[in-house]
Amino acid sequence: MSAVWRAARAAVRRRRVQTIVIGLVVLCATTTVMLALALLSAASAPFDRAHAAQRGAHVSATYDPAGVSDAQLTETARRPGVEAASGPFRRAVVMVPGDWLWMPRGPLTVVGRADPDGPVDRIDLLRGRWASAPGEIVVNWDIGGSPFEDLLGTKLESPGLPTLTVVGFATSMSGSAGAWVTPEQVAELRPASVQMLYRFTDASSPAAVRDGLAGATAGLPAGTLTASQSYFTLKKAFSSRADAYLPFMGLFGILGLLVSTLIVANVVSGAVVAGYRNIGVLKAMGFTPNQVVAVHLTMTGVPAVVGCLLGTLAGGALAGPFLQVAFSGTETGIAVVNTVDPRVFAVCLLGIPALVLVTALVPALRAHRLPAARAIGTAGVSRAGRGLRVQRVLAASGLPTPVGLGLGQPFARPARTLMTMAAIVLGVTTVTLATGLTGTMLAYAETGAGGGPTVTVQTGAPLNGLPSLRLGDAEIEARLRSLPDAREVRASALSQVGLVGYTQPAFADFHRGDLASHASRLADGRMPRTAGEIVAGPGFLTERGLAVGSAITLELDGRRVPGTVVGELVDGDARAFSSSWKTLEALAPEVRARQYQVALAPGSDARAYADAVDALDPGLRAEVNEPGSAATTVVVGFSSVFTVLLSVVTALGVFNTVLLNVRERRRDLGMLKSIGMTPRQVVVMTVTSVTGVGAVAGLIGIPLGMVAHRLVVDNVGIVSFTAAMKDVWHAPQLVGLLLAGVVIAVLGALVPARTAARTTISAALHTE
């Protein structure tokens, strides 16, 4: 083996270009695969991973304490099928006034719990500490980047109840409560129910969870189980954003795997074929066939392993920021989702080198059977007979000689040409898909902006840390309209509203004023006009089985208003809908506007407008809205990075193909130069040999990319893209995409073409 290692090490040093190409191709391919697998792994089961890490409840059950005792509830934890249980916990509902911690007014579920740990629902404490004394409360709130420390100490004052001070912020994957206090404290909040949290041995389906709950509650007095929430309901709401990324992540991941596999196979097999002469020399020196195979596997494996290690590190580093942005909208489990699964590292570190070795083994075994004389004789002999008929036809076509010769070269190595073309096709498909997604997402990001900057104005109240307002509601709106550059002003108030017949919480955004920009966010239907009419995003409608035209009933503070879904928005929170101010007047006429959205004229100075708003009233706080969104950032950034990586990998594959072709045709080049072919003509001939391949690949890749684009945008669950957002293809753009395959091919061929042009006749014709 020492002789094998010395021979392989010498070959690596001698074939520096080949070694560098293999290392770079494997590096870029590994980075691509690592990034794709990391994002796919995170997006495929973010809820399951976070839920398992916190030992989340499969069911949160609520009981009537008047009909069942704590001893009976404790006994349910020992029933067959129950893996673990926590509770019983007393449960109270506290009415939260508007603007407390920027929450909408409405009910807050408070549970009495001595500590955040336990066999079920291990609560993740983010900031502060757990409530340990009367008058303390821990709030279920996970908003990345919020100034938690500034909010610690906030008071919750509800009429007729003790004042509570926020001492911590935490999250629960079980959705078990909106806040927690000590068991002694919850008794003073007049609890009306008792909570039990269960994990079952079989929770593989909603039916299995229902059976597990039925087994746990068997024998309890009828009617004592008043409500239950399955973790499948939480999972659907939690995963709505992550699921939206799956279509394009999956497509990019598949493209990355295919391109990387094709290029690595092409490069490695070409390197072994190009080393046939070296195989013959080694056999002549006394190396056994197995030792010869080992030399070539080592020669290709060393740069592949180095490239794989560097690519894995690069892919892991790129995956972190993308995961942070992609799942910034999820409410819990951020730390779990934003870490790359260790199995992804293992797959890349073991799988890519294995792919290289298997790919190298096939041609190496073919050379294993070659006698030494034949292997030496095979090296450097061009396949003149292959494609000869095509070359003759091209020569008689009237094309310039270098162009005709170049166009005929791919037919001499059809298998190698097809692999290279397939890689370029996938590269063009990726560029087309990325271009389409970028155009769609940029159009989506501009929805509702009207071409100009926007400013959000929050109204003050002691509960959110701002002074009380001096100006009235109508006066604030009038002042905002009077400031320079204000084009549209829309007032809104957010409140928690019940939908009769549905258990999921719903938040209503009631609005009045200018609605032109807001109406541009409609994907279907119209804006609300009368009381009870609502519009919502696809996530809200899908989770509740609603559609445009569905009848609903809204409920708030004991008042009910019948209504209808009259429109579907392009996007929106799966828990929220929008309605008109007339609906708010029917439900809660005493509520005033808490926020204003101001659309400015294009080219306006948004910061100057915000400063002017702050000067109107100490109780107003204006913030300039940043353009774009997390979804836009993820899609555009991910597709851009992936496009660059796959383009580089494809160009390296073309580079390797052309380099091998030039080496195999050294004698042909020498003969052509000897009869008068100039270096410029050599460059033209060499570049032309892949230009035709790139053009054909472009013609195939563009429609594939367009189909992939439509497949992605039509299957994003949380966004309903309009026809205008999907219509991103125009003639100049298609021409540019057609040239993408040619550009990738030319960039890969240019360096070896210039090398071939500089080769002297004597060097080209040298038998050694």
Entry summary:
By secondary structure, the chain is an alpha+beta fold. Helices cover 53% and strands 17% of the residues. Strands 1, 2, 3, 4, 5, 6, 7, 8, 9 and 10 form a 10-stranded mixed beta sheet that branches. It has a 6-stranded mixed β-barrel with strand order 12-13-18-15-17-16.
Description:
The protein has about 775 residues and is of the alpha+beta class. Strands 1, 2, 3, 4, 5, 6, 7, 8, 9 and 10 form a 10-stranded mixed sheet that branches. A hairpin with a 6-residue loop joins strand 12 (about 485-500) and strand 13. The chain starts with a helix and ends with a helix. Mean pLDDT is about 80; it is low at about 145-150, about 330-335 and about 380-385.
The proportion of strand residues reads 15-25%
Distance from N terminus to C terminus (CA atoms, Å) equals 28 Å
Counting helices, strands and paired strands, the structural category is alpha+beta
Helix content percent band: 40-55%
Task: Please state the CA-atom Rg, rounded to the nearest Å.
Answer: 34 Å
Number of helices: 28
Please count the beta strands (DSSP E, at least 2 residues each): 20
Uncertain runs are 144-148, 329-336, 379-384
- Tell me the overall shape: elongated
- The averaged pLDDT comes out at 78
The major beta sheet can be summarized as: 10 strands, mixed
